[in-house]
Design brief:
Layout lengths: L5 H14 L4 E5 L2 H12 L3 E7 L7 E6 L12 E3 L8 E2 L13 E6 L2 E4 H7 L3 E7 L1
Antiparallel strand pairs: 1-3, 2-3, 4-8, 5-8, 6-7, 6-8
Length: about 130
Amino acid sequence: MGMTDPISDLLTRIRNAIAMQHDTVNVPASNLKLRVLYLLREEGFIRNFKMVPSDNNQGVICVYLKYSDDKTSAITQLQRASTPGRRTYVQASSLPRVRNGLGIAIISTSQGVMTDSQAAKLGIGGEHICSVW
């Protein structure tokens, strides 16, 4: 049986690992999760991630979490916006601004998954996946 909301599962696993101050967390792999993690790495919220060989066909992604010297996480909050039961779409003119620019909104557009600032530069909207700050 497949998972109902894999992005919520990814965010919850990261949130739980940060609460316990783990250095890494393993999540089941998918292309959408890889793209979201790529954006989190590019924006400085996680250190890195890599695919780990697995006994099943799906694979596993190992996410390396980022902490400061005093063990506070680079991620303060992860918030899911669009769910399978309630999709949230935004137009290019009304892209969300997270924490007045201190956070990012991840948007799934017709041209791929990108941050709110990238979507604003291209002038396109899409599904608001999640917000991170």
